[in-house]
Give the backbone structure.
Amino acid sequence: MFELEATLLILLIITLIAAFGFEFVNGFHDTANAVATVIYTNSLSPIPAVVWSGFWNMTGVLLGGIGVAMGIVDLLPLDLQVGLSAKEGILMVMALLTSAIVWNIGTWYYGIPCSSSHTLIGSILGVGLAYSLLPNQVFGSGVNWSKAGEIGISLLLSPLIGFSLSALLLILAKKLIKNPALFREPEKDKRPPTWIRGILLLTCTAVSYAHGNNDGQKGVGLVMLILICSLPTIYAINSESKHYEKLPTSIQIIEGELKNPKMSIKPDQLLIANQSISNIKTILAEDSEVKKEKNSRVLRMEISNLVKSLKNVNNQSKEFQIVYKEIRDVIHYSPFWVVLAISLCLGIGTMVGYKRIVVTIGEKIGKTHMTYSQGASAELVAATTIALSSSFALPVSTTQILSSGVAGTMLANDGTQNLQMGTLRNIFLAWVLTFPVTVVLSMIFFFLYRVLFL
């Protein structure tokens, strides 16, 4: 028994290090998204630029909430998370992390702007599919397809939004702003005018903060997956929160609200809600240390089912809305130490290895040097798109939005002859191949780790 526990502890430590390593790699892989424009417009020198970006990436993680993080956790169905043993859960997350880190480092090495979001989500889908290939499993059951569909649409549309809106913003700026300095190539080693520099610093800050807000949460979600699967008694539910203490009362209030004739809820939703309420009551009534681990896992699943069944209920009372959020927050949470650790990894990673991708974005997308207006347009669109996605708890690719935004401004500035098609082809291929490659890689690592450790 001690050997098994020791093995689990070692695997847990390795997996947590890998999760923090992924966020570190994410930082130096995605640094260029924020700093390329300020560096290539001479607004900031490289070192101050990456330090500034790193600080705002950390701030974005710390203040960004956990909506996107929970979206990552929910990609693996809750009944799968409940059914896995601690060892199986750790090996599953180890496999997806290995796949994500290998692909991220490979694309960084070749200077290809590649989406860490695509990489991570493809890896999660891969281990889910691999699990569903095991005996007595239904193929595809290891993936939450509704959540995967939502995320897939956001990842598909966001680069198109970045490209088109950045181009339109630049065209609009040309028509409305008559200052020619904004649209000229920066003079070598000369700072831009103060007001232009201020705008570029502001957009750099906004992209850095938005990147931390969105991509940092993915790291938080990864760590929570590890902790929920390996230490469910402690982390499956937030048992130390005031909302958990109030859970029996909150459940009674929801049960009473569901009997209100003014509330509009579909019969199938009502059936699921009532069944979950009954199951939650039963679990809360049990006070057995022997059953605590299983109860924590099942309680998380039942609360999740209840929250989903009540999500789109019409004619909600104010009390219902308050209690609903309190019940949801029992499972939608992350300890502060996880958020802090991820913010440090992302921030420090941002200050390392930025040159490869910076050169690609700054020099290899367009044939002409980036102008002030192009840098500001691409970053303003990127920051806004990422911030809106985070508000809807959807992970998007900062890399794809920003690089496609730069391409859009190059097209709007001088037409297709200003685009370096070889670079764009490589970026497009990375975009297309990331999903299938990471799915296959994570499936391979999943079965390899099972052979080695189970």
Observations:
- DSSP finds 20 helices and no strands in the chain.
- The chain has a mean pLDDT of 85.
- Residues 2-233+336-453 form one domain.
